[in-house]
Every structure is written in structure tokens, then in C-alpha cells.
Amino acid sequence: MVIENPIRVMIVDDHAMLRKGLAVFIMSYDDLKLVGEAANGEEALALCAEIHPDIVLMDLMMPIMDGINATRHIHREYPDIQVIVLTSFGEEMLIKDVLEAGAISYLFKKVSADDLAKAIRAAKDGFSTFAPEVTKILVQSINQPHPAFQDLTERERDVLALMVKGMGNNEIAEALVISLSTAKSHVGSILAKLGATSRIEVITMVLEHNFHLGAFYVK
Fold it and tell me: Which of 131, 166, 188 is the last residue of a domain?
């Protein structure tokens, strides 16, 4: 089946065999289209200027320019291009740095093909996807909450926990058995109270301040 407007994907990884494997994966889905490959962040920036993909699958540890710096440049110069981190490394500082740089999702290379395809589709629509291990780090509490979170109500904390899991407003409404309009209201209130402009900014704040999300803590 021919899809009229497939999601245009670029692969950035310094391992040629992994790029080849990802290319085969992308070409197996009718709604995904491989439009470019890069071996490092510098090549990725040049290709973004030339082909302007919808989604970039970004490795972190690469020569010449790493994935964090490449993500920062892409997010600043091409804000409509979404970066999905695809890596073998899960250190908290790496997660924090690349989310602050502008990545929308963080996955590990062991992710299944179907889950990666879902993450690509979600990113195209502006939604985040995180590996379970990353979600645990995002909701882990090791310090006292930052004052920025103290004004959140108990229900807003529940909503925030589901936002961290990558849920959209419809899923949040279903999980909490509330109306869609109420879910949207809670999300808007959370962004306003935290002075954030996007979900990914809120998630980065959770990680940065080690905020405990209570009832929906990921086991």
C-alpha cells in the first residue's frame, strides 16, 4: 500500500551495520520513509539542512559531534524536526542533557520494531515515548521536591505522572476516569504553574529536580 505522506526518517549512528538494520526496519513500514543516513552529528546537521526530515533517530556517542550537541543544534535551527534518542546508554545525566537539548523521546536500541514505529508516529504528532528504565529515572525521588512543584494539587500530580509516561490527553482522561476537557485543563494548569511551554519541558523539570510523582510511581 502506498502512503501519500509517509513520515520521513533520518538515521544518525556511527555504526554502519546498525544504520543498515534500521534502514531495513524503516522500509518495512508503509507509513515510514528513509530519507537519509549520517555517521555523526556534523553530518546530521548538514543533512537536516538539505532534506529536512520529520524524525531523526539519534545515537548519543559518536565522533566529531555527539548526539546531545547535534540535538541541541537541530532543535534550535529546525524546531519542527523531532529527535528520538536511540542509544545503549541510560545514565541519568545523559537523559537530562539530551532532553534539555530538545529530544522528544528516549529509547534503547533493544526496542522492538513495532514499539519504535509507534514512537516515531507519536513523535510526529508531538508526543514523547520513553523506555521503561528512563521513565523510572524520570519519576524517581531522591531529594526533596523543588519549590516549583509545591503548588501542584494531588490530582495535578497524578496527571503529571501520566504525562511523564508519555500519555496524551485522551489517555490521561481514560486512566483517571475524567472528561477530556478536565484532562486538558489539568495539563494547562500544570504548564502554567511550572512556567513551562511544552510537555517535554515539564518532563525535563521532573528529571532535573527529582520530583516524586506519588500515586503513579512506576514500579
Answer: 131
Q: What is the CATH number of the domain that holds 164?
A: 1.10.10.10
What angle, 0 to 180 degrees and rounded to 10, lies between the N-to-C axes of helices 169-176 and 180-194? Answer: 110
Give the integer Cα–Cα distance in Å for 156 and 152. 6
d(CA 79, CA 196): 17
- Nearest residue to 122 (alpha-carbon basis) of 99, 104, 135: 104
Q: How far apart are CA 124 and CA 56, in angstroms?
A: 10
Host domain of residue 157? 140-213
Give the residue carrying C-alpha cell 520513509: 33
Q: Return d(Cα 16, Cα 37) in angstroms, integer.
A: 9
Is 2 inside any structural domain?
no
- Residue 217 banded pLDDT, cuts 50, 70, 90: very low
The span from the CA of 104 to the CA of 209, in Å, is 19
74-88 pLDDT, tens per residue?
999 999 999 999 999
Answer yes or no: do 203 and 108 share one domain: no
